[in-house]
């Protein structure tokens, strides 16, 4: 049975798998994202001790614009690293949207206009080097990773 079959059965039975967001939590997340995005646009781009940018994507199924505040880590003068942790249990929606429509991605840094970017998912030694820098800068991300059964994707965003 695939994950899709399980989710379909749970929805038909009116149940959710534990840890699967419900309508209220999705609404709450979008509300919080909108508040954080407003702060970033006003020039305040830090949250819980991490630099934050707005990642603009397009919904993979809906085609609707999406914006998500995400922590970023510098990768040289003109690139940004983001980690698709998604709370540990699954890739976040923004990751699926970004991978489905990489040509429509952009970022907003605090107080700046949106900039089109190209995402590159890092693998192998490139991911490991980037991960070591990220973990050194934010040890709590490494702690979250150690508790997850999956390897968090690391995405390099470069100007397009």
From TrEMBL:
InterPro entries membership: F420H2_quin_Rdtase, Split_barrel_FMN-bd
One of the record's GO molecular function terms: coenzyme F420 binding
Assigned GO CC terms: plasma membrane
Catalytic activity: oxidized coenzyme F420-(gamma-L-Glu)(n) + a quinol + H(+) = reduced coenzyme F420-(gamma-L-Glu)(n) + a quinone
Region (Disordered): 1-24
Superkingdom per UniProt: Bacteria
Polar residues: bias regions: 1-12
Family to which this protein belongs: Belongs to the F420H(2)-dependent quinone reductase family.
UniProt protein name: Nitroreductase
């Amino acid at each position: 049975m695939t994950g899709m079959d399980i989710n379909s059965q749970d929805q038909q039975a009116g149940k959710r798998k534990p840890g699967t967001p419900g309508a209220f939590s999705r609404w709450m997340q979008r509300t919080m994202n909108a508040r954080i995005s407003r702060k970033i646009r006003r020039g305040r781009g830090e949250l819980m001790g991490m630099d934050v940018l707005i990642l603009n994507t397009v919904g993979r199924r809906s085609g609707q614009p999406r914006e998500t505040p995400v922590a970023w880590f510098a990768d040289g003068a003109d690139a940004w690293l983001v980690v698709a942790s998604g709370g540990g249990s699954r890739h976040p929606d923004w990751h699926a949207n970004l991978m489905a429509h990489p040509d429509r991605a952009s970022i907003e840094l605090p107080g700046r206009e949106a900039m089109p970017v190209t995402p590159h998912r890092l693998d192998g030694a490139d991911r490991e080097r980037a991960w070591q820098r990220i973990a050194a800068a934010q040890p709590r991300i490494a702690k979250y990773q150690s508790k997850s059964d999956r390897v968090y994707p690391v995405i390099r965003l470069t100007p397009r």
